[in-house]
Amino acid sequence: MRKITIKDIAEMASVSKSTVSRALKNHPDISPMVKDKIKQLAESFHFVPNAAAVGLRQKSVKTIGLILPGIHHFFVPAVIEGISATLKSKQYKLMILISDDEYEKEVQNIVTCIDSNVDGILISLTKMTSGLDHLDKLSDFQIPLVLLDKTIDQQKFSEVKIDDYQAGKECCTFLIQEGVREIIGFFGPESLQITKERMLGFKSVLNNAPEIRTHYYYCDSSGDAREKCLSALRIHGEADAVFAMSDEVLVGVNAALQSFRRDNHDLSLKTVAISEGYLPEFMFPPVSHLVHNGYELGQSAAQLLLDHIVHPEKKPEKRFLLTNFSVYP
Amino acid sequence: MRKITIKDIAEMASVSKSTVSRALKNHPDISPMVKDKIKQLAESFHFVPNAAAVGLRQKSVKTIGLILPGIHHFFVPAVIEGISATLKSKQYKLMILISDDEYEKEVQNIVTCIDSNVDGILISLTKMTSGLDHLDKLSDFQIPLVLLDKTIDQQKFSEVKIDDYQAGKECCTFLIQEGVREIIGFFGPESLQITKERMLGFKSVLNNAPEIRTHYYYCDSSGDAREKCLSALRIHGEADAVFAMSDEVLVGVNAALQSFRRDNHDLSLKTVAISEGYLPEFMFPPVSHLVHNGYELGQSAAQLLLDHIVHPEKKPEKRFLLTNFSVYP
DNA sequence: CTGTTAGCGCGTTCAC
DNA sequence: GTGAACGCGCTAACAG
Q1: Cβ within 7 Å of strand C: which of A 5-34?
Q2: For residues A299 and A185, what is the distance between their CA atoms, to the nearest angstrom?
Q3: What is the mean pLDDT of residues B214-242?
Q4: Which of residues 55-114 of A touch strand C (CB under 7 A)?
């Protein structure tokens, strides 16, 4: 079954193609009568403009590229859902490219986006990315880009993330208010900007609380976090609190705490994390956490990118998402 | 900066557009000399054919649509990565549409795929989907479709999944070999085909073991699973084994087991699950599980769809993925 | 071996 | 108010 085109409708209505084209987009020149007739026809035959033809003509394929280091992480799916929901409402398509946490693939994905004539790019950087030279050519093609979550220090592009510094700060404050004395903090890969900022925020609180002892560990995976946490628990026998900066880290830390508790039934460490929110509730005991809402982050980033597409002159803007604590007694 | 076109290259090489077009795709008619020259030019100017123009001409936009009930589930991200990897190697683009587990949105997503002229569709059904009438119109447009993971009983389309019946069977067999006497089984939503099949497989083993007592529960979410597991543990005090049919269910079951253990330190239930594989290792104690490999499932489904696209006459085929046990002592 | 022509489906001048 | 004609970038049928 061939799909109906503007030409078919033109013949049925005995008008020209251009009249149909104009009628369908409410051009004021067209008389209400023929406009109605054409719209009726289009409706009843389920006419949908051919995306490739429109794209060719308008030099816009109404697609945005989403480049991610990977999607097996905990809150990434929520981010995608948020982006997807926002784009769907504006009739934009989403093309997902995965960098597998390799810088070279990230560069390649940028090229793919350019070659595909995307209207804009959303990107979360790999942990190997330390500069943004590979994004320079985007300006040649006027392709707007928004960084989300995993960023590095820069001024050229808009970005959306939680206030990582503030998040680290709040988590530390939370622990101190709970009256803890010695904290073990578990962080993600050292090279990540979010790791640095969360740690800085965390430490900032301790300036006013010099009596609190702290120990820090960088973890590359859940497994790594488990090992480091197990050994840390043995070394720092007096510790009474634990912080995990992400779900990935938290999963390992929680595993370590569980098995450590087997031999120390009375062990009770105050635990707090930054998390997407799904898992902590199902840990035992449930883990208090600062909610890092992926869905909202996705929505916000997508909306910001669309703004840039519609208003090419818009200046870069940094947006920080609000976070809330979910506290378990 | 305008992108370079075939026309630009034609002028630079003083040949016609069609010569360039043919040279670039190694048409045998073109003399090696001019072919080389044109390729040189194309290379040095980073020529990339305009996808919209090619799509318009070839009536194929080299895109496949992926329709999912949601992506917050545990193994879905892995599926997407598998699909993405396979498609990338064949230069296909991926368009992801989310149905939010609502039948109406699934129907709408099919329409979107048709309207977008995708070359093929991969779909995992929502738990509300009980028929495939909404897929009928695909044959009008010759759009091949492959079902993955969440399917219903049907013969019209190819599908890729694990052998759910077999998986249920293996898990039950595993428990029996461990010498358990009374099993509590936790399953997903009752309406899902995979739930039915996993349960049938599970029960099939018990025909030969009438002395084993069993109790079954359907769970709609992790939270639901936790509640039902807690109450089940209280009711069936003699139970010595637990089965969880998916990660989502397992998360809740594990939480219940943990908190129940608090009051029953010696409680030790043999636990087994069907899982994507990431989480069970980090539970305490680690949970033996049948690995439901999302990445491979994605790869296989994508490859099968591409086969259908290239060979439109290909008959529907049902593929079952092999599964392996990951056993913890 | 290579060029000319035509057209994919649509939007957009420029006429009338 | 409406239509004719052109072109977006590319490919393919037809010439030569």
Answers
A1: 5-7, 17-18, 21-22, 24-25
A2: 30
A3: 96
A4: 56-58
Tokens matching residue A328: 């378990």
CATH 3.40.50.2300 location in chain B: 60-160+294-322, 164-291
In A, minimum Cα distance to B283 occurs at A255
Task: Examine residue B285 and say whether the peptide bond preceding it is cis (omega within 30 degrees of 0).
Answer: yes
Residue B263 above 80 pLDDT?
no
User: Hey, what's the torsion of the CAs at A75, B92, B85, B100, to 10 degrees?
Assistant: 30
Closest chain B C-alpha to A207 CA, distance in angstroms: 35
Interval B275-301: pLDDT, tens: 999 999 999 899 999 999 999 999 999
Measure the CA–CA gap between A242 and A256, rounded to whole angstroms: 11
- Helix residue spans in A90-221 (DSSP H): 103-115, 137-140, 164-177, 193-206
Of the candidates A278, A272, A280, A318, the residue with the CA atom closest to the CA atom of residue A295: A278
The residue among A6, A56, A114, A186 with the most chain B CBs within 10 A of its CB, best to mutate, is A56
Give CATH 1.10.260 domain extents, chain A: 6-56
Is pLDDT of B248 > 70? yes
Cβ contact B5:B50 at 8 Å = yes
Read off the pLDDT of residues A141-174 as tens digits, 9 standing for 90 and up.
Answer: 999 999 999 999 999 999 999 999 999 999 999 9
The yes-or-no verdict on residue B111 having pLDDT over 90 is: yes
Task: Give me chain B's average pLDDT, please.
Answer: 94
d(CA A68, CA A97): 6
* Amino acid B265: pLDDT: 63
Which nucleotides of strand C lie within 7 A of protein CB? 1-13
A327 alpha carbon, distance to own chain's centre: 24
Interface contact B251-A56, CB threshold 8 A: no
Residue from the list A56, A81, A285 with its beta carbon closest to the beta carbon of B72 = A81
pLDDT at residue B49, rounded to an integer: 94
pLDDT band at B145; cut points 50, 70, 90: very high
Q: What is the DSSP string of B283-309?
A: SSSPPEEEE--HHHHHHHHHHHHHHHH
Pairing mode, strands B288-291 and B324-326: antiparallel
As a whole number of angstroms, the distance between CA A9 and CA A3 comes to: 11
Nearest CA distance, A185 vs chain B (angstrom): 19
Residue spans of chain A under pLDDT 50: none
CATH topology of domain B6-56: 434 Repressor (Amino-terminal Domain) (1.10.260)
Q: Is the pLDDT of residue B148 over 90?
A: yes
In this predicted structure, what is the pLDDT of residue A322?
86
As a rounded value in angstroms, the CA-to-C1' distance for B10 and C3 is: 12
**Superfamily of A60-160+294-322 according to CATH:** Response regulator (3.40.50.2300)
Taken in order B165, B171, B175, B178, is the CA torsion positive or negative?
Answer: positive
As a CATH number, domain B164-291 is 3.40.50.2300
Residue B118 pLDDT > 90, yes or no? yes
Which tops the pLDDT comparison, B314 or A72?
B314
Instruction: State both tokens at B308.
Output: 């259908």
At A285, list the tokens: 């005991």
Chain B residues closer than 8 Å to A70 by CB: 81
